[in-house]
Amino acid sequence: MAKNKTTKTKKSSLTDVQNQIAQISNAPMLKDDVRATRSDRPEYAKYFASRPSSHKPLSTKETLKLFASADASIARLIDHRKQRELNIFISCSNLDFVLERSLINADVFPYLREVGKALGIVVNLPCDLSLTPAYFKNVHAIESLRNAEIKRCRETSVGFSYIQLFGQSYGPNVLPTLIPAHAFDDIMCVMEENEHIEEVVLFTKWYHLDNNAAPPQYKLQPINTFIQDYISADKEKHEAAEQQWLETVEKLETALTIATTHYLDSDWRETYQTSELHSEFKQGILSQSPAVNGKVSLAFVREFDSIDLNLPLSLNFADLKEETSKDAGGSKVFLRHTVDTSKRARLDDLKSRLSNSNTKTFTNKLPSPSVLVSNPPDPYLQNFLDTLCDSLVNSLIAAAPNSEREPTPLEADVAAHVEIATSHGNYFFPTATLLDEVSNVVDYLDNRENTSPLYIHGPKGIGKTSFMSHILKEINDVKESNCCVMIRFIGAGHSTTSGIELLSSLCEQMISTIATIDKSFEPVELPHTAEEMSSVFPKTLALFSARKTNLVILIDGCDELQTTSSDSSLLFSWIPSILPRGIKLILSSDSVCPLHKQLISISNSQVIELHPWSEADASRFIKAKLKDRGRTINEAQSSYISECLSPFCTPLVAQLIMYEAGSWPSYLESIESIPIRNQSDSLIDKMLDKLEGKHGAIIIRATFGYLFYSVEGGLSTNELLDVLSLDDKLLNMLEKVLPPDCLKLQRRFPSVVLRRILQDCVGILEDRSTADGTIVWGFSHNQIKAAVGRRTKTMEATLRSNLADYFSGRYSDGKPLAPNAEPIPRYVDTQKLINHQGNANIRMIMELPHHLIALKEWKRLGRFLSDLNVLDVLGHRGTRRSLLRPGTARAMLLNLWSIWENETSMDVSVMYMKSFSVWQKETTPSLRDSNRRMKSIAVFLKDLGSENSKMRYFDKAREIFDLLLSREIKEFGEHHPAVESTRRMLESCVANLRGRATKGKTLTKLRKGSVGMRRDSSIVTPMKKNKQDGVVSPALSKRIDDSPIVLSPIKMEGEGEDSVEDEIERVMLEESYGQGISVSFNAAVVEGTMNGKPQDSYFFSKKEESL
Q1: How confident is the model at residue 52 (pLDDT cuts 50, 70, 90)?
Q2: Which of 381, 626, 923, 952 has the fewest CB within 10 Å, making it most exposed?
């Protein structure tokens, strides 16, 4: 009989974990692509088909009327935004549910994400704590992370927030990482009284008193403090160190058992002698309050009739203890494994509490663990997945927004900016100097004779955003009933990404408020161009003032408008130098921005400058905020911080130091090594260095880099997990620190790693909303974002490429590890442009084209933009199935096509007609659908011609409208509404062709001839001179009817390669179409310029021809 050293932790060794995962990873059920089939099964496809389609997007006019209604309160909107997530914690401490958890992630949650999209609920993937890397275990991060995750899910999730998986294993007891000081002293006291001196010495070695915690507590030290090889990259050294740690844990647990079993009451054992399963149960089920709005827990109990303890697969399905005997030499000899009855009793006690808790329980009885890997798969697995999926889907349906409509873009804007103000207002710290400045702002608001804007400025990190947020709070606290307040943070929301969007958002809110005040007021559609909006804003202010209602507008971060706005000509030209009576405008900006002097001029020197804090104020802020977080610092640490703060510092520096000092225990000796300095940039770099040292430079730079290069200011948790899961370089690096072979079950970035990073980034990252209401992670301050940009500059191409691949859905069915290899499922979002309910994927539309532009992938960009569904979503008058304003969508599509056209010199109309032809072949549409698509294309081409002064797009649009008109007359008759609509479109297009004014293009001069008029019929042919042989060849021929016209010589400068030719074409079309005119030129030679250089001469010759 073999001899073995007895150890209670044998089944938690690396070898057993590896064997367990290896066997489970070959389970037939896991090999099937179950994810791809669930939505195709009729019983699950019904969840899409039975839901009514989302409400059709509203016009601006309808939006303003709805926003003015009483039910559209800001509080309701903010609550609506918060109640849109399903966050579930799945108990995952033991290895007996490895297969079920893997199948849940592979099958159930990808399907739930699609259902959630149809219901307007974001389904976040669960955090799997079983995939914990060694460096997490080294600092005992699992307990705090688990408690934080359970709390987060309970507070933020709709429907179920916790799933308990019960097998027949209670699991090994785990050491508490934190023990209150009074409890620790009691434990040590009883052990000393009973002469357990060795155990006392061991405990005081591994647990240190932290007086910086409130109340004080003893903290378990990192493993590598005394076992340095625990985080070694050398596998043998690490395994030896882990075994040494397991032996240490056994001694510490034995000492705790002695104390809690023999000398203390049972409550102590319940607190300090529990397994991870027990801890999760207490946090997830026993700590829950009674169900509110259907929020309950789920529990699945699985029991086997028999477990063969001699099979390696069975070792993790029951709590075992070893029976031993002694041989002749006195050594222990292993006899057999037996079930640990004491742990089984504790597990049965937990199961018995389910009936008294707010938990829905399902029980399954199986013959043995071998059914989990049987071939074909046992029906239990499919039934388990279906039961779980049905429960969660029903929970989603019950929790879906029951309002008749989703928030409009305006409502989402207002709610997002109010949330930002609420969040940043918490950072306002009332120093004497700041309170004086608040008083100055109040005086400005009370002074009705002051008609100038107020300008607030200061250096970066001075606290302008928190100051503006506090001003909003002050105004709301004291404002009268006839006073309205509006706030915008430039660069922080989708309504402030450009000047026109900022003005549109403010004007819409003002008009909606006017409609509330004046019931006779009829809201009007707002224009979509920068020039028009710059004149509309002051007019809207005047309309508001005429209603004798006070209005305060706060705009923070005006320096950001210069970098984010494409409307550079619009910058602040819309701000009137004299505000209408009752209107107050408060602006804030960085003191060193190029617009600083302009803003001072606009405000007529009505300026408030914010100054850095004194060392005393900064110290008071740090200590006050630490107290709010249940922390403090000792005298030595306080002195060190004071030296670093002296003599002055910005609030940003004080805030970052506060977050850093919050992690200092009182026993920390090397204070000088803490990376803090008075300069914010240096401090930010040091904090990023610390994060990279903790989690790895590759992981941190990739995570932050994806956030930095995202277009809408960040990525959601799911998006970040998905795009990280497509980064094989990152996953290959993680394989070295994760439990062996765990990525064989699922090749995905472990959610537990991302959750830990987010937990460590408090103060660095914050959540915010995007155009479609998605909550994303972004940087809390522009200085932090700039520091990340410097670090990730060399990774830009790779990061953008991965983002483009993700948002295009390129690897939604799997990504191979090498070229020509079989794709491996990554279980990422499918990224459908139009979902089951006909709603647009706004995240895809906002992100993908910009990454393709940065990567110069013009073919992919052209294919994407010419997709007719994109035209439906973004087209000016198409079927818009999005949360974007029509003006925003139109401007975006026009801008993207302009960039593509400039880079490729290809024709947009050709791309659309190709897509139209493919669509017709693939879908065989009805005549009505075909006409609708054609009309969308024609309208957009007309808009594109108007935007870019390309007359060929006007002409193409006219051709399509001509064809549509003949089709519709044939189908509906002459006076059908559809015919009248198309006729109006055609007339509008013709009017543009006739009346298109010359803009930005001129002819340098006319010489060697003159421009005249003749009444005879003719065909006028512009002739382009061939430089090599002097031959004049036809370039364009247009038919012109007999009618008089006056052509005036026009001075013109070329803007591009086609400047002169386009202008000639414009003149010909403009003056000929439908006018019945005759034009002739007597050897007129026109010279143009391109980029300041002479262009070919154009000869106009008259050719007589009878019409």
Answers
A1: very low
A2: 923
